[in-house]
Amino acid sequence: MSDAGAASHRPQHPGELTWFGQPRGLTILFLTNMWETFSYYGMRALLVYYMTRSLLLEQEASSLIYGFYTAFAYFTPIVGGTIADRWLGKRRAVISGATIMAAGHFMMAFEPAFYFALATIALGNGLFLPTLPSQINDLYSAGDPRRPWAYNVYYVGVNLGGFLAPLICGTLGELYGWHWGFGAAGIGMLVGLLIYVAGGKYLPPEAPRAAARPAQPAPVPTGRQVYALLLAVGLAVTVFRGAYEQVGNTVALWAAEGVDRAAGAFTIPMTWFQSLNPLLVILLTPALLARWKHRAAAGREHSTMQKMAIGAIIVASAYALLAVASALAGDGRASWLWLAGFFLIFTLGELYILPNGLGLFARLAPPRFGATTVAAWFLAIFAGSLTAGLVGTLWSVMSQASFFVLLSVIASAAAALLLALDRPARRVLASRETRDAVSPEPMMRSGR
User: Fold this and answer.
1) Per-residue pLDDT tens for 26-37?
2) What pTM was estimated for this model as a whole?
3) Which of 89, 113, 241, 290 is most buried, most CB within 10 Å of its CB?
């Protein structure tokens, strides 16, 4: 009998081209999204500071604009995903979206175009965001053991861009001028576009969008139950994002106003702290995947919903830590070590909930509606970002410690909702896996 561990890293089909045991297309996808993430988080690292310090907007107004922008950026994918599935196709949608976003980032360098630039980035994002990760499933056959881990590998690559963004765009904007940082974000978007176009030969070919699909027996549970589950998960994630999205909003303000950033004679730039989150994603993911694989081998693996609930609880504890730090600091400033500890705990929780949530939506996507279903995940992020903007307006009317306690309560409520969905989610996932095993979809080859 062959070694199962070794087999899981070999190509599942003769002639498949791989890098590091994964289809080469996965590398192209995460490098493309790495640079898109670089551009998005590079701009986001500067956004609140730019509005409050350069445009001289009040904190409440900047929080609402931040919330509406991030919300709109995650609302447009539901329209963009439908356009990609029905008319444009995934590749043309990615290329069109990336081009529009690059234009929007360059517009940010011109103050009069501020609001129009934000709208342009959000519109391009609608075409780009759901269609890129929806191509991951097409790289694998239904029974490929590498597929469940693909989203975590992809998530690491994406966060590499998030790590570099505040260091490059944030430093340029903070030290040399906001418009230099916004311009660097636009260049990053163009790099991602070039990688995607150059690596197109490694991506899965698209099925004809107008082709009829052979009739298949309806899965059990029914499609209606699948959609009900996704809706319920989306509502729980909406609650969670109300707390999660404060990292780029009120937590960023606390880093500037309530944290002693001195490290000896050096003062740590406030935007650098936003690089801690993606850096920790890169460092923690291998150890976390090893732990999950060990638990799976021992028959003690947590279900998808249990992992997501654990993640929400961990994020709640991270905000509780900030509440303690703020209370102890009183009218003074807290040590930057408290903020570093927050990001360590916060990132661990993020790794439990976000990649698993995206993977859940992708795995339950109906045939030929992958981009639309993944877009539904981003629709939940839209609602959560809008909620986060409204929650952020309380920053100016509550004490800092009380505000962070509120965020901890919000994340805990999301954990309770996710845990309540565990049993129905197990039934739906087991049914989908049984259907795929009996009638697997043809593999979309990653090499030509």
Assistant:
1) 889 989 989 998
2) 0.72
3) 241
pLDDT digits (tens, 9 = 90+) for 214-266: 444 444 445 678 888 989 999 999 999 999 989 888 998 898 889 998 888 88
The arrangement of secondary structure in 21-206+220-438, i.e. its CATH architecture, is: Up-down Bundle (1.20)
Contacts of 76 (CB under 8 A, 6+ apart): 122, 123, 125, 126, 127
pLDDT (average), residues 316-332: 95
Of 350, 24, 291, which Cα lies nearest the Cα of 159? 350
> How far is Cα 409 from Cα 403, in angstroms, rounded to an integer?
10
Q: How far, in Å, are 171, 173, 252, 273, 304 from residue 270 at the CA level?
A: 9, 11, 8, 6, 35
Domain boundaries, the chain: 21-206+220-438
Q: Which of 77, 73, 49 is nearest to 63 (CA)?
A: 49
- Give the integer Cα–Cα distance in Å for 425 and 264: 51
Alpha helices in 173-222 (DSSP H): 178-198
